[in-house]
Write a structure and sequence with these properties.
six-stranded parallel β-sheet, single chain, 12% strand, alpha/beta, three-stranded antiparallel β-sheet, 55% helix, LDH C-terminal domain-like
Length: 540
């Protein structure tokens, strides 16, 4: 029987198309009905054109319907995938730029810290609307697969207040798993063995699992590799630290994660930039931030790095869409399937083929020293009966303590978003580790008011109860009294200018040229080496 998969926020170009193509790599799912919905008609139309061409060029029976009417898209859906960014890049800029006026320097700002908390206020209002529609028009017990951040807050709200069968999904565990495999392989001289497993594109994406097995658990973006087996031998904290400190790349790009590994004895999943804004130690003094980050990639800690690359990516896509469309329709094969959990979960439920992964669900005793009501990320498996979590036991005490600090912020943020409660919202931000390390209570109160005002159009719960109006009055009063604290004018400790499309195109061309030059030099070196070898043979 044909299934229906609805995508909310389908205008998320790269992500929607990646998950869509993943589903179509499964033979039994190649007649799926995809229902795309988005509030942006232009984005929706562009994504639909790309995916329609993928279907046509691969001669598949799947079909797509696209609509800006969300309820129409959800009608009769078996699965709903959420990849929205409520408020888009305009609201996202406020999550980064307003806190900078108070000295809070974030790399991403979409999970915790003040940016993540405010992102949650916008998202949760929308999530509850999505859940209402799912309950009313989707198939009974339809599965809501949430990819949108802040992952834990969104999933918490959907499960507690949305009344919908929900799982939160993230690929963070996979990234750190690959790093661990590469670091240990280099330490032990096994790089060639690791490369030998990469005989195809599929194997390249999963070769790390041939050398390393893990137990990983915690909360989303603060998940910990509590047990690591390398070639069936348990790896000690000292050995893992030695591997990362010796790695020529990770030793420079993962300074925060390595420092936490040194102090905690366990490696954490999320990137250097993400981790640096979830704890109070690495981004609180501007003069010291550069010490802990690396600017070779935004993900290593750049101020507002994710905002920059998403803005550049959007502008680039809009400019180059005709080229993208001309190139669409590549073969959809098993080898190109990604490690994103979504398609694997749907395949398992529909076919009964078992899939193991890491999922975000209510704790309920899975991790015994974290609160039962928290949304945890832990191992589990999927079969035709659904998702089943695996008991983990206690997290190491330092890891649990770090998670609990975040859980407390998440819990208050969810309740504040559901109620439209400004007092509780400010209490949540007061308890956020990095924000509290930088700001005093008066600064936090003013910053929250300023963000409520700036983002009011995406905060219906705070508009309806008059809280935005009250925030305006409070902020006007402190400005009249000359007690306004959001006066810092810096762009952050490590801000990089957003490139225009023309600049991006030039830098891409320069990158291609440098690659071509490097390849030519390698060929020249090989030729010279071959010549020397031949001459040496003749001389002998």
């Amino acid at each position: 029987m044909t299934i229906k998969i609805a995508f909310i926020g389908a205008g998320s170009v790269g992500f929607t198309r990646r998950l869509f193509r993943d589903v179509l790599t499964v033979p039994e799912l190649q007649d799926t009905h995809f229902a795309f919905t988005d509030i942006s008609r232009p984005n929706l139309e562009m994504v639909t054109q790309l995916c329609d061409k993928d279907i046509a060029q691969n001669h598949l029976p799947a079909r797509i319907t696209a609509t800006t009417n969300r309820r129409r898209a959800l009608q009769g859906a078996d699965y709903i995938i959420n990849c929205t960014r409520i408020g888009g890049l305009e609201a996202f800029a406020g999550d980064i730029d307003i806190p900078l006026k108070y000295g809070v320097d974030q790399c991403v700002g979409d999970t915790l810290c003040i940016g993540g908390v405010m992102y949650g206020q916008r998202n949760i209002a929308a999530i509850l609307d999505f859940c209402r529609d799912i309950r009313e028009v989707a198939k009974p017990n339809a599965l809501f697969l949430n990819y949108a951040n802040p992952m834990a807050m969104n999933t918490w709200a959907a499960l507690s207040y949305g009344g919908v069968n929900t799982v939160g999904l993230c690929h963070g565990v996979e990234g750190g798993w690959k790093q661990i495999a590469h670091a240990l392989a280099l330490l032990h001289g096994d790089e060639d063995e690791l490369k030998s497993y990469a005989k195809s594109q599929w194997d390249r994406g999963h070769a790390h699992k041939r050398l390393v097995e893990i137990i990983c658990a915690g909360i989303n973006h603060q998940t910990w590799y509590t047990k690591i087996l390398y070639k069936d031998r348990e790896v000690s904290a000292r050995e893992l630290l030695e591997a990362f400190e010796a790695h020529p790349t990770y030793s420079k790009t993962e300074k925060v994660r390595i420092d936490m590994l040194r102090r905690f004895g366990f490696y954490t999943t999320e990137s250097n930039g993400h981790v640096s804004e979830y704890v109070p130690w690495y981004r609180k003094r501007p003069a010291e931030i550069r010490k802990w980050i690396d600017l070779s990639s935004w993900i290593n800690g750049e101020t507002g790095g994710y905002l920059r690359v998403t803005t550049e990516g959007r502008n680039w896509f809009k400019s180059d869409f005709p080229k993208w469309l001309a190139e669409a329709g590549d073969p959809i094969t098993r080898e190109e399937r990604s490690s994103e959990h979504g398609s694997w979960i749907i395949e398992s439920i529909e076919t009964g083929r078992v899939y193991r992964g890491h999922f975000n669900l209510r704790n309920n005793g899975i991790i015994t020293n974290l609160p039962d009501d928290a949304i945890i990320e832990a191992p589990g498996f999927v079969d035709k009966f659904g998702i089943h979590m695996t008991p983990v036991g206690d997290l190491p005490l330092a890891c649990a303590a770090t998670c609990i600090s975040s859980i407390n912020v998440q819990r208050m943020s969810v309740e504040a978003a559901v109620r439209g409660d400004t007092t509780l919202l400010k209490q949540a931000v007061l308890h956020d580790p990095l924000t509290a390390a930088v700001c005093d209570p008066e600064e936090i109160g003013q910053m929250v008011d300023e963000m409520l005002i700036a983002q009011a159009q995406w905060l219906p719960q705070y508009r309806a109860n008059g809280e935005v109006t009250l925030a305006k009055k409070r902020l006007e009063a402190v400005k009249r009294a000359k007690h306004y604290r959001g006066t810092q004018r810096g762009r952050g400790a490590a801000r990089i200018k957003i490139k225009t499309v023309a600049e991006l195109r030039r830098s891409k061309e320069a990158s291609v040229l440098s690659v071509d030059k490097a390849a030519a030099q390698r060929e020249k070196d090989a030729f010279v080496s071959s010549g020397k070898s031949n001459r040496s043979k003749k001389s002998r």
